[in-house]
Amino acid sequence: MTPAARVQTAIELLDEIQAGAPAEKVLTGWARRSRFAGSKDRAAIRDHVFDVLRQKNSAAQLGGGQSGRALMIGLLRLQGIDLETVFTGANYAPAALNDAETDAARVNPNRPSAIDLPDWIVPPMQAALGDEFGETARLLAQRAPVCLRVNLQKTGVSSAVSALADEGISARASALSPTALIVEEGARSVAGSGAYRDGWVELQDAASQSAMDLLPLEPDMRVLDYCAGGGGKTLAMAGRVKARYFAHDANAARLSDLPERAARAGVDVKIVTQQQLRSQTFDLVLCDVPCSGSGTWRRTPGAKWRFSPDDLAELIEVQAEILDKVAMLVRPGGNLVYATCSVLQSENEEQIAQFLQAQNDWRIVNQKRWPVQADGDGFFCAILQKITKFEAF
Ligand SMILES: C[S@@+](CC[C@H](N)C(=O)[O-])C[C@H]1O[C@@H](n2cnc3c(N)ncnc32)[C@H](O)[C@@H]1O
């Protein structure tokens, strides 16, 4: 496909997304129907669509509307691309610009630049982030870094960096965690690399790794990852300390990749059902709860426009229910770890404050928030300890 034909396809897919279809589904559906498109075409079209979604309000402002075509015009203007070379109307290229589209570029210099977030989320984000709000909004509108975690059970950081370099992948250490690498070149080759296949590295955000570094893990502890999903956090813990790891998820299908990932990483993880958890206790229980994902919206930019106040209210209830459930699974003196990739107080500090108000046998050991930053996503983690009966007297 020519670059202009890719733009025209992105325009059509953005129209479907603007009509309410989820971005991921639209892109996958198109790739399946379009056997003529190669991997470079698919990647370029995905980039156009995701770049627009990250900066949708800015693109609409510069493109003069919310249609796929207006948004693509706005995005290309943001990127400084000469529209005349793309909007030619030749072959599969988009039609030439009309007068209104040309006029939309005449931006009033006094007009404030757009915030690329849904209007309703701005006040709670400003309340949570204060002076950091502007920088967070700016970073969420950019592409996310590709971040790896070095698996210390299999290799060291410098060996992993050299193995990746041998396969054309250049990566640098991140200050966020001793195991975190930021890929600077060759990101698309990571999944096919030997370092990945042999379990030396895994894809994982640096702030998530930094949070797992804080956990008071000891060899032979019984550790439960209660909302394990694909097992990213289980594997990060197991990469650090050889303990006995158990993984659970309310949606068993989400655990399906974990056995293969654990085998690749060379660690043991036992999957447990709710039934098996009855009458068991653990030294440490992690609940990486379902959340808005607002700290990761540059990775899933379609999600931020679909997320609603009702979704947030529902999630806050689910998070509180999970906290109440896992509290019973921690042995006296053990730790409960609550984590989200949200930047909102209602999902983070307020959730912990309410839990501590309702339950008097817990204390906070540590609570930390990671802002969205160049190397890492927004993340929150609270480490609580269950007070023993002896201490309570
Ligand atoms: C943020 S994701 C977890 C990501 C995972 N920890 C990782 O690092 O890859 C939240 C997970 O919680 C699960 N979940 C939702 N409600 C739950 C519940 N009531 N009990 C346990 N897990 C739940 C979801 O299925 C989802 O996999």
TrEMBL record:
Residue ranges of domain SAM-dependent MTase RsmB/NOP-type in the record: 136-393
Identify the enzyme class.
transferase
> Mind listing the GO molecular function terms for this protein?
RNA binding; RNA methyltransferase activity
Which family does the similarity line name? Belongs to the class I-like SAM-binding methyltransferase superfamily. RsmB/NOP family.
Source taxon at top rank: Bacteria
Question: Which residues take part in binding S-adenosyl-L-methionine?
Answer: 249, 288
Q: Which Enzyme Commission number(s) are listed?
A: 2.1.1.176
Name the SUPFAM superfamilies on file.
Answer: S-adenosyl-L-methionine-dependent methyltransferases
Check the record and name the InterPro entries matching this protein: MeTrfase_RsmB-F_NOP2_cat, MeTrfase_RsmB-F_NOP2_dom, RCMT, RsmB-like_ferredoxin, SAM-dependent_MTases_sf
Q: What is this protein called?
A: Ribosomal RNA small subunit methyltransferase B
**Protein's UniProt keywords contain Methyltransferase:** yes
| Key word S-adenosyl-L-methionine present | yes
Q: Active site: which residues?
A: 341
Q: Which GO terms describe its biological process?
A: RNA methylation
Q: Which UniProt keywords apply?
A: Methyltransferase, RNA-binding, S-adenosyl-L-methionine, Transferase
